[in-house]
Amino acid sequence: MPGRDRAGLIMADSMFIHMLNRLGDVLLLSIIATVFCLPVVTIGATLSAVSYTAIRSIQGDDGYIWRKFWKGFKKNFKQSTIAWLIMAFIGFVLYVDIFFWHKMSQVNPGDIHKIMLMISCVLAVIYACIFVHVFALIGNYENTVKNSFSNASVLAIAQFPWTLLMLVILAVVFLVVRVHVLFIITFMFIGAGALAYIFGFIRIQVYKGAMKKAESAREELRREAEAAEAEDEESDADADEESNEDTEEGADEDADEDAGEESDEESDEGAGEAEEDAGESEPDANDEESADAVNEKK
User: Fold this and answer.
1) Around Cβ 78, how many Cβ atoms within 10 Å?
2) How remote is the C-alpha of 263 from its chain's centroid?
3) Percent of the residues in the chain that have a pLDDT greater than 70, as a whole number
4) Is 110 left (phi over 0), alpha (psi -120 to 50) or beta?
5) What is the pLDDT of residue 14?
6) What is the spatial distance between Cα 176 and Cα 148, in angstroms, rounded to a whole number?
7) Which residues neighbour 42 within 8 Å (Cβ) at sequence distance 6 or greater?
8) Cα–Cα distance for residue pair 275/99, rounded to 1 Å
């Protein structure tokens, strides 16, 4: 019993220490993310690095938070910055568009204004769905910016329940932060890191499901490729057999032609020899006749 109690206390202490370490990681990651987002242009690289750090920590990499963050920040700075500039521009256009159609619907109510406002809101939702995935993909997978956007769009649709959950969490955080400046300070020192870890757990599930689907798709493509290769081999074998048959038939025809030519040549040679023999025999007969005539004269 005392041994079990001691083991239980040790386990409880280790769990408590682990929780304290994780809380410290959350606080430190929040502060780092807040500082690195201040230049604005580095927000994309910061989001990628935060996602990279949180997912690595959840998966068991308990190294220094700063080292992991800095590694992800440097590694994906260029691609993340390009993606951030694109998303910032699109976000600004959508904001102006929604603001404009909202004001127009208030000043001059009409169906066209409401329809345009609804279209703008739908585009904003699509934008948000891509936004919650694209920087995490850049931070955790090596790919081009174009493919990252494409994969983010696919994930937003294929894993829509998880995407919707992240959007709801972001909406709640946004509404809470707007209540009082104290919540903004709290988010800066703990909320950003906590949000990164929450999203990290969700993204691990998202990537697992996506990888399973991708693996099944690759397996199906592999089977189709093997089947196509087998069909090609069969068609090649049939073509070889047909070519061999054609070659044999051609050889037989050539042999028959050669035999016919040889027989014709032999017959021609025989006829020529017969004519020569006949020609030689005729002079002999003439000679005999002339000899008989001379003898008669004598």
Assistant:
1) 12
2) 70
3) 70
4) beta
5) 67
6) 31
7) 36, 77, 81
8) 117
d(CA 84, CA 44): 5
Average pLDDT taken over every residue of the chain = 78
| Structure token digits, residue 265 | 């040549």
pTM for this entry: 0.66
Residues 6 or more apart in contact with residue 137 via CB below 8 angstroms: 143, 148, 151, 152, 155
What is the C-alpha separation between 253 and 279, in angstroms, rounded? Answer: 39
Helices (H), the chain: 2-37, 43-58, 65-75, 77-107, 111-140, 145-158, 160-177, 181-186, 192-297
Q: Buried (b) or exposed (e) across 197-232, using 16+ Cβ within 10 A?
A: bebbebbeebbeebeeeeeeeeeeeeeeeeeeeeee
The CA-based angle 187-188-192, given to 5 degrees, is: 65
- Condensed to tens digits (0 to 9), the pLDDT of residues 118-133 reads 999 999 999 999 999 9
Q: 42 phi and psi, to 5 degrees? A: -95, 10
